[in-house]
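R.M. (postdoc): so does anyone remember the format we settled on? I'll just put the structure tokens first.
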């Protein structure tokens, strides 16, 4: 979240930023409540001081009546102090509720608007394929090669769940192995994370784990939730810690299952593996100094590009518009892969995103760093990025590499793990 003092001292800037991001935030109410909170704080401090002064007078009382009167006066002052303190705490809690709804500030180069206003920045090395035969989407390719079982998945767990079979399992594991190997070479520490996290950690990252609009599966009668991304568990690893500046950046790549309710998702463009309730993902996460986060953001975008160039998948990079950033993100780049079988005649589909969240998450999670010789501490900056979400990557690989005879070419970097150069029916 944004610093409260910053919000109040820069009310017009914050208000304008909320409007740009289509966020409904009441900055004036925060200012009003904070003024009232400070009054209650001062009152509580004054009453506490008076109570202490009264207590000091008790031993000096000349008689029992005077002593009892001072005791009663001290008791009354402390009751008044406790009341003022409770009122201050209630005001503080209300302010925090309003404060956490305010989105992060926005990078000046981010385009204003919604999904259709994203700015196209660049394209990958692989061109869109040209087919001289009737192509299949990944669902039909899956039938031909016996790769998926959506019907059994729905029977066992409900719609949106599925089984991977045969070569799909090898491709899924190959994508994980390649992404982890690549990122390890870039200095990221590989980590397998829990599939569950406490509500406090989700809120710290900026997710809404409970309520009618949540995309999170929550465990009943507990504070645990299934994670929608390893961003949650990787960010939570250092919650409440203070690092030395020399330890930064901390680079992590997390392998985890991801669970999302995907409420309301339906339609041809989202069928099959594109929008499901469970998938596997390798996630990048970085803790950096404030002055390094912009450069790290560009690096993480470049790592995503390098991965999908190696996977021989056509893609474009977009600078996401303000309305699609999400509360914590200062700036977000998406990679959208070309999926020939998506929609009518093919369409771009998001396969990765990387966000610079500046100190927005770190402030909630309490992750700080200290420079040598510096008295105080600063909040770190946090960044996250998808290395590969295996389901969507598999869609792009299968659909772009299909051949007229029904076979599917396997990208060279995956061949050692898949065990073949060309996937033929029955493999």
């Amino acid at each position: 979240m944004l610093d409260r003092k910053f919000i109040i001292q820069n009310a017009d800037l914050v208000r304008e930023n909320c409007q740009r991001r289509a966020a409904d935030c009441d900055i004036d109410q925060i200012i009003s409540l904070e003024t009232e909170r400070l009054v209650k704080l001062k009152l509580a401090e004054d009453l506490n001081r008076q109570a202490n002064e009264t207590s000091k007078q008790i031993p000096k009382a000349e008689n029992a009546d005077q002593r009892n009167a001072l005791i009663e006066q001290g008791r009354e002052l402390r009751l008044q102090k406790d009341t003022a303190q409770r009122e201050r705490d209630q005001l503080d809690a209300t302010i925090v509720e309003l404060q956490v709804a305010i989105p992060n500030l926005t990078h000046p180069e981010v385009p204003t608007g919604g999904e259709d206003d994203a700015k196209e920045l660049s394209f990958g090395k692989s061109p869109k394929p040209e087919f001289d035969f009737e192509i299949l989407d990944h669902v039909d390719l899956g039938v031909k090669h016996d790769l998926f079982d959506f019907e059994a998945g729905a029977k066992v767990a409900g719609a949106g769940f599925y089984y991977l079979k045969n070569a799909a399992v090898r491709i899924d594991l190959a994508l994980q192995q390649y992404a982890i190997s690549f990122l390890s070479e870039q200095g990221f520490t590989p980590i397998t994370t829990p599939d569950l996290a406490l509500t406090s950690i989700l809120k710290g990252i900026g997710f809404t784990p409970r309520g009618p609009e949540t995309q999170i599966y929550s465990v009943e009668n507990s504070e645990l939730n299934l994670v929608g991304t390893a961003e949650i568990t990787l960010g939570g690893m250092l919650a409440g810690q203070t690092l030395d500046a020399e330890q930064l950046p901390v680079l992590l790549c997390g392998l985890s299952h991801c669970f999302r309710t995907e409420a309301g998702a339906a339609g041809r463009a989202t069928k099959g593996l594109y929008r499901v309730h469970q998938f596997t993902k390798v996630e990048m996460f970085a803790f950096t100094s404030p002055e390094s986060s912009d450069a790290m953001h560009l690096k993480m975008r470049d790592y995503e590009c390098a991965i999908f160039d190696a996977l021989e998948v056509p893609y474009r990079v977009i600078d996401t518009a303000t309305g699609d950033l999400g509360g914590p993100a200062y700036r977000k780049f998406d990679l959208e892969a070309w999926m020939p079988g998506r929609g009518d005649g093919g369409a771009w589909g998001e396969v990765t995103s990387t966000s610079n969240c500046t100190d927005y998450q770190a402030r909630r999670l309490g992750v700080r760093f200290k420079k040598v010789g510096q008295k105080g501490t600063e909040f770190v900056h946090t960044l996250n990025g998808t290395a590969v979400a295996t389901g969507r990557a598999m869609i792009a690989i299968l659909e772009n590499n299909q051949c007229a005879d029904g076979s599917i070419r396997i990208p060279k970097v995956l061949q050692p793990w898949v065990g073949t150069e060309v996937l033929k029916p029955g493999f």
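R.M.: ...and that's the designed sequence above, right after the tokens. Also worth knowing: The two ends are 51 Å apart (CA to CA). Residues 103 and 326 are 8 Å apart (CA to CA).
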